[in-house]
Amino acid sequence: MEALRAETSVAELCRKYSIQEPQFYKWNKEFLEAGKKRLSGDTTREATSDEVTELRKENQRLKEMVADLVLRYDIVKKNVRISVYRILKERGLITAPAHIFITAADEFSKRQL
What we know:
mainly alpha; 74% helix; rod-shaped; 113 residues
């Protein structure tokens, strides 16, 4: 803002904040463009490279979490199916071979989804 109001020279500001002049002009251009867009009613803005990097990291972390949960779900689903079969078999409620029961259970669960 100091440079826009011509209170301080660009060279002085760059020395004061330890930045290169090309970087200053880049930021100044981005600032002015954002201001124009805001004045015209456009409230969206481009994500910064740091924001994009953070979003990519979060996206990767969430993908890993989903993969882990899917694996856990499959393991639990398989264990529940086997446990139910064993309980029913022990109580004499199942006389068919295991593969017939498990196939039927799979068909039933698919229809429920």
